[in-house]
Structures are given as structure tokens and as C-alpha cells.
Amino acid sequence: MFTSWKSLAAVAVGLGSFVSQANCETPEHPELTWISEDPTLPKVVIYNARGTILSASNYSRLDNVNYGSGPPVTVDQIIGNVSEVLKLAQLAVVSFPVSGGSAGLNSSLFLNITQYANRHLCTEGSDIAGGIMFHGTNTLEETAFGVDLTLNCSKPFVATGAMRPDTYISPDGRSNFFQAVATAISPAARDRGGLIAFNDRITSIYYSTKTNANTPDTFKALEQGNVGAFLGGQPYFYYTAPSYPNHRPHFDVTNTTELPSVIILYGHPNRGLRCLAHLYEQGIPTVSVTRSVTGTGAPGTTEGPVFYATYLGGPQARIMLQLAINAGLTLDEIRDLFESPLRDAIYAPAPNNEWYY
Ligand SMILES: *[C@@H]1O[C@H](CO)[C@@H](O)[C@H](O)[C@H]1NC(C)=O
Ligand SMILES: *[C@@H]1O[C@H](CO)[C@@H](O)[C@H](O)[C@H]1NC(C)=O
Ligand SMILES: *[C@@H]1O[C@H](CO)[C@@H](O)[C@H](O)[C@H]1NC(C)=O
Ligand SMILES: *[C@@H]1O[C@H](CO)[C@@H](O)[C@H](O)[C@H]1NC(C)=O
Ligand SMILES: *[C@@H]1O[C@H](CO)[C@@H](O)[C@H](O)[C@H]1NC(C)=O
Ligand SMILES: *[C@@H]1O[C@H](CO)[C@@H](O)[C@H](O)[C@H]1NC(C)=O
Questions:
Q1: Which residue ranges does UniProt annotate as crossing the membrane (predicted)?
Q2: DSSP 3-state helix, strand, coil percentages of the chain (rounded to 5)?
């Protein structure tokens, strides 16, 4: 495919004279333009939904608070500042329309990203090794979770971002970017479900949440732990693959452009959620998640009108419920989707059924 690569037009794009943004379009993915130093390197697509990783402060090198209004950094600039990535991979960028901070986003974004990623990574014969996603950290876990449940192949999809703007005295985004690419090209990263590469650690998208509003060590799967870590910029995996999150479902959203609305109700003293059974009577599925930082609520011995999400946080359960309703699942099927892993674990094996029934 690359026999005529050197003869194709090359356009320098501010990445240094050794880099060319050549029109070496793959026949299957004509919209991708590869930034490449070496056409034998694996290909990685950057799904760019921006965020702090591409933010700059116009105040000071210590500003990690008020940088939102600084002049934005381009993907070319971060590649220029992390030029080592081009020794690892050829890169192509697909940028998605995002306005305002990541808190203003909705599920149209993950539907769009996953449709591109499925086309690029999961079509038969695709020569693309993996994908990475830049995303604002406030809602990274939602968009990443949506992609994780809808990407239909075993190739690595690695979400990353930053807690510090690119202008900080030691920006975390540049290192996170390198580590995400190193993960995306790693054969050992396949067959694990979507991953987050952030602050020297690899976690499973399925179980990860942002645990700190300010510091770089923020994405954690507090209960399930790290999938791996980085040494010398390279990923080290603690467990062999395949190793998927238990009971992670898959939904096809090839033709979906919008998802049904699902809201989150927050329970607290003086505001019990006793009304939930009424929602079930009206045919409205309601999923209960623990308010604790991690862990799970557990269903009772008999099936009730409120469904319990197996080890999912509220933002994740919300997206899974949207996908389940969109897929046309009945109330009973939705209950099974969320609860049956817990029911099987708690109530099915002997002698447990003797203890409870
Ligand atoms: C920072 O940038 C914003 C818009 O990008 C501008 O309104 C503001 O005046 C700038 N501040 C400084 C100190 O340059
Ligand atoms: C590095 O990033 C800064 C913005 O933070 C940008 O001004 C500069 O051009 C980048 N360097 C390269 C080589 O692209
Ligand atoms: C999906 O992403 C593409 C590529 O950035 C963009 O052109 C398109 O407008 C997006 N669609 C929606 C519905 O956001
Ligand atoms: C989601 O966000 C996109 C981009 O801002 C917007 O065009 C679309 O109308 C939004 N969809 C919903 C359901 O709010
Ligand atoms: C791909 O999609 C099919 C049909 O929806 C599903 O059964 C299968 O589990 C999916 N594979 C992956 C790796 O998600
Ligand atoms: C999506 O739409 C195409 C074209 O109408 C159709 O061939 C395909 O079966 C649809 N896929 C799903 C999963 O609905």
C-alpha cells in the first residue's frame, strides 16, 4: 500500500522538517491523512474531543485553574512537543465538534466517535492498530464508557486527557498523550475492553471514574484496580489477556444518532426515592446505584421494580440504560442486563440459596 508513499505530495504542518503530512490515504479510510515519519509504523487514530490536554493559560505557568480562556493548543502542536510519538506510530486526527467545556457535552458525541472508531478499527482487513481519544476530564468517563459499550472489536481504544493545561510548568497531557499512543499500538493491550491511560496508569474504562477535581492522579478504578502501569513510557500489564470487565454488554449503534433521555436522581436525607416503584408501574425503568464512591447496591431475593446496577457508577448506569432502551429491551430484559450478574453471584450458587430462601 505504501510503495508509492515517497512520491506523494508532502505538506509540512509545523511539526519540523522531518515530518510530512502526506496524502497517503488508505483506500478504506479516505478521510484519514497520516502524519508519519516511517510508513512501516503502526497506525493510530486520534479521536479529538479536545479538553484541558489542548488548553493553554494566558496567565502563568502555574495556572491550572483559570486556563479555559487561553489560546487553544492544536493537535499538531502537541505532536510537535511530544515528537517521540512519531517514532512509535503514524497518526491521523479526527476532530469532533465540541463547544464549551466537557460538562456541556451529550451522548451525540460518543455516538459519533464510536461510529468513526468502528469504521476505522473494526472493519475487516483494517490496518489501523488502535485509537486514542482526547477528552475533557469532567465527562471523559461518560464518553469513553459509551464507546466502550459500542465498539465492536478487540483493538485498543484508549482515552486520555489532562488535568493541567499545556502551558503548566510540567503539563501532564504530553506524557498522557505519549502513553496513550504507546498503549494503542501494544498487542498486549488488545482484548481488554476500552482503557484509560492517565498519569502513568492504565485502568479499565468500564470501572473508572474521575476521583479528584484538580490533581493529575484522578482516574481510578478504586475497587478493581489498575490494569497496568508505564515504565520508560511503555505499558506493563498486570494481567494476561483476554481479560474483559465481567458482563460488559455490547450494543450496536451503527444507525443511532440520538439516545432516549435518562436522568439521574440523587438521594439524600429528607429526599428519599420512595416514588421509584411508581415509575416501574408506568413502564419507566429505574436503575439504582450506590451513592458510595465504589461498591454496588445488591438486589433482594425477589425481583423488584427497581433494578440494581452491578458495580457501575451513576453516570455509567445512565448510559447503559440509554443504550438498553434504545436497543428495545423490555423491562425484564433491562433488569437482567443490570442485575443478573449480581443475582448469579449472590443467590445462585449452593449453599447460598439455602441461606436466603
Ligand atoms: C486571555 O485570553 C482571553 C481570551 O482568549 C482574553 O480575553 C484575556 O484578556 C487574556 N488575558 C491576558 C492576560 O492576556
Ligand atoms: C508546543 O506547544 C506550544 C503551546 O503550548 C506551542 O506554542 C508550540 O508551537 C509547540 N511546539 C511545537 C514544536 O509544535
Ligand atoms: C460527527 O463528527 C464529524 C467529524 O468531526 C462532524 O463532521 C459531524 O458534524 C459530527 N456529527 C455530529 C452530529 O456531531
Ligand atoms: C448534543 O450536542 C450537539 C452539539 O452541541 C447538539 O447539536 C445536539 O443538538 C445535542 N443533542 C441533544 C439531544 O441535546
Ligand atoms: C460485535 O457485535 C456482535 C453483535 O452485536 C456481538 O455479539 C459481539 O459481542 C460484538 N463483539 C465485540 C468484540 O464487541
Ligand atoms: C443500519 O442501516 C443499514 C442501512 O439501512 C442496514 O443495512 C443495517 O442493517 C443497519 N444496521 C443495524 C444494526 O441496524
A1: none
A2: 30, 15, 55
Ligand 5 centre from 322 Cα, in Å? Answer: 18
Which residue has the least CA distance to atom 7 on ligand 6? 255
Model pTM score: 0.91
Task: From first to last of the 357 residues of the chain, give the pLDDT tens digit.
Answer: 332 222 222 222 223 233 334 444 455 788 899 999 999 999 999 999 999 999 999 999 999 999 977 899 999 999 999 999 999 999 999 999 987 666 667 889 999 999 999 999 999 999 999 999 999 999 999 999 999 999 999 999 999 999 999 999 999 999 999 999 999 999 999 999 999 999 999 999 999 999 999 999 999 999 999 999 999 999 999 999 999 999 999 999 999 999 999 999 988 887 766 777 788 889 899 999 999 999 999 999 999 889 999 999 999 999 999 999 999 999 999 999 999 999 999 998 888 888 887
Residue with cell string 481510578: 220
CATH number belonging to domain 12-237: 3.40.50.1170
Q: Where are the domains of the chain?
A: 12-237, 273-356
Choice among 33, 52, 123, 167 that is catalytic: 52
As beta bridge partners, residue 348 has none
Which of 52, 77, 83, 172 to probe ligand 2 with, by most ligand atoms within 8 A of CB? 77
List of residues 6+ apart from 4 with CB closer than 8 A: none
* Residue 240 burial by Cβ neighbours in a 10 Å radius (0-12, 13-18, 19+): exposed
Task: Give the 3-state secondary structure of residue 157.
Answer: strand
Q: Ligand 3 centre from 50 Cα, in Å?
A: 14
